[in-house]
Amino acid sequence: MKSVMEWFSHVLLIITIVYIFLFGLIWFYEPVRALASGFLLGGLISLYNVFHLAFRLKIAGLRAQSGARKLAGLHMTVRILMIVFGVLIVYRFSTRIDYRSFVLSLLFGYLMLVTVMSYYYLRGKGSTSSEEGGEIYGSDSESEISRNDL
Predict the structure, then answer these.
(1) pLDDT digits 0-9 by tens, 94-132
(2) What are phi and psi of 82, to 5 degrees?
(3) pLDDT tens column, 69-98
(4) Longest Cα pair distance anywhere in the chain, in angstroms?
(5) Around Cβ 109, how many Cβ atoms within 10 Å?
(6) In 3-state terms, the chain is what percent helix, strand and coil (to 5)?
(7) How far apart, in whole angstroms, are the C-alpha atoms of residue 21 and residue 114?
(8) Can you give the C-alpha Rg of the chain in angstroms?
C-alpha cells in the first residue's frame, strides 16, 4: 500500500505543477485572466482535497494496522469547508474570478485521482503477488467450480 500512495503522490504532484504552470501563464494574458483565475482556484482546491484525502487515508490505515481503539477520521468536513471557502472567494471577487471555470475545475482533482489510479492498476503495478506478502485469490484448485460440483 505504501508504494501505491508514494507513486500516486509523485504523479499527482507532477500534474499539479504542470497545472499551476499552465494556468499561471494563461493568467498573464489579460482577456482571459478571470477564466484562468477560476481554473486556478478551483483546480488548487480540488487537488488540495485529493491530497488531503490521501493523507487522511494513510493515517487511518496506519491506525487500523496498529490496532488503535480510536480510529482516525477522513475529515470530510474540512474538504467541504475548503470548497465553501472557494465559493465565498468567487462570490466576493466575481469580476476577477469566473464562477463557471471555478465549478468546472472543482472536478479536476477527482478526475485525476480516478485516472492516475486506473492507469496504475491497468499497467499491472497494482496486482498483488505472493512474493510481496499478498495472497493470490482463485489460483488453487479448491476455488474452481466444475460442472460436477453443480
Answers:
(1) 999 999 999 999 998 888 888 887 877 787 655 554 444
(2) -65, -40
(3) 777 778 889 999 999 999 999 999 999 999
(4) 74
(5) 24
(6) 70, 0, 30
(7) 22
(8) 21
Residue 103 lies in a domain: yes
Distance CA 50, CA 23 (A): 19
| Local structure of residue 82 (DSSP, 8 states) | H
Note the pTM of the prediction, 2 decimals: 0.72
Nearest Cα residue to 49 out of 79, 81, 76, 20: 79
Q: Which three cell numbers stand for residue 117?
A: 489510479
Domain assignment of residue 35, given as a range: 1-66+83-124
Residue 89: partners with Cβ closer than 8 Å, 6 or more residues away: 41, 97
| Residue 145 in domain | no
Q: Which residue has 477564466 as its cell numbers? A: 35
Rounded-to-integer distance, Cα 34 and Cα 100, Å: 10
Residue written as cell 497545472? 19
First to last CA, the chain: 38
The count of domains in the chain is: 1
